[in-house]
Amino acid sequence: MTRAMGGELNSDDLLPEDVDRAEEFVLCDNSSTAVVEAILFAAKEPLPARRIAELAGLADATQARTLIRSLNTQYDNSGSALKVYEVAGGFQLLTRPEVAPYVRAMLGEMAEPNLGLSPAVLETLTIVAYKQPVLRAEIEAIRGAHSGEALRQLEEEDLIRVVGRAEDLGRPFLYGTTRRFLEVFGLRDISDLPPLSDVDKSG
Description:
The chain is an alpha+beta fold. 51% of the residues lie in helices and 12% in strands. The protein has nine helices and five strands. The protein starts with 15 loop residues before the first helix and ends with a helix.
């Protein structure tokens, strides 16, 4: 079907079979959005756009991102408690921060990871997050205390990992954060960490 030069296409110009095809297209688009929503709902961890496209049978990651934006627009317009967030290099369907207290009240400790980290371990994690890649010696110099046990606990929790070795004598380990660290703290990547000045104020 072609449209006349200088004319404007309207429903009267469409043949019955063209109307059917148009309706099928709209349904298909809505269906794809629903499929993406279902995939995100079922996922236990953030999914990259490319993986979402594969699972949903979409053309590519760009289409997946477009449908995610459409989904978030629907959530925003309806005042939904849900939103798709970009976390740890992928996308995850989560409740909005505003309703988090109500979710915690209902689910208790199940609502978020109960890491049970001591202040010393959290301090070590903060140093790794902001200074990575960082040596154990550098961490201990900043803290003024031994950090071997803290590093061990953080590795067990899969919050940090060895990311390489320094060129110094003995080639000591360099530490950095993991993808799980990003997931736990709701970050897209390390650049989303708040400025240290903001961290100091909140403390």
